[in-house]
Amino acid sequence: MMLGALGVVACGGGAVRVEVMEDEVAQVVPVGGGKARTVPRSTLPPGAREGDVVRDGRLDAEAGARLAREVAEWRARLAVPVPDGLDLSSGASGSLTADKER
Fold this sequence. Notes:
Layout: H1 2-10, E1 16-21, E2 25-30, E3 37-40, E4 53-55, E5 58-59, H2 61-78, H3 98-101
Antiparallel strand pairs: 1-2, 1-4, 2-3, 4-5
């Protein structure tokens, strides 16, 4: 019970997303935007990982899944389609500047 209370205090009492986990500390960002904060890792619930959402000292799996889905949709909208016939898997053959070097 004490661990949950510490998590709420350290995380500001609202929902936060865990951005970076290190040995002793974690960086969290309020869901919906805001300034990142560093908190002791021990204030997060056991099993918390990068990308998880913590609300009221507990993991919020539903909010975490929703946020991951929104990020995936946002990235898909930013993706640049590859034109037909362009093979990116083969890589460039030789130097791209070979003609200029001669």
